[in-house]
Amino acid sequence: MMAEPTINEIDMISNATNETYPPIMCPIMTCRWGFSHEIDEVTGCQTCWDPCSNVECPENKTCVLQMRACFTTPCPPLTTCENITF
Which domain of life is it from (predicted)? Predict the structure, then answer.
């Protein structure tokens, strides 16, 4: 059973184990491709969506975003795997 946190007069959060810590403030972010549905485990804040996050490219290739012309939204970029150049 987890203890419910409470906020006291000085905006510090406490739990049943008497640990106190300042409330987490998520930064105001602008995410080019919007927000993901994932929450950062450390901060508890929402994260930006990375179009390449679920793309698996073969060895010696990397995910590259290609913009496209769209007439509706959302309009995510196309993802392709291209050779890594050194």
Answer: Eukaryota
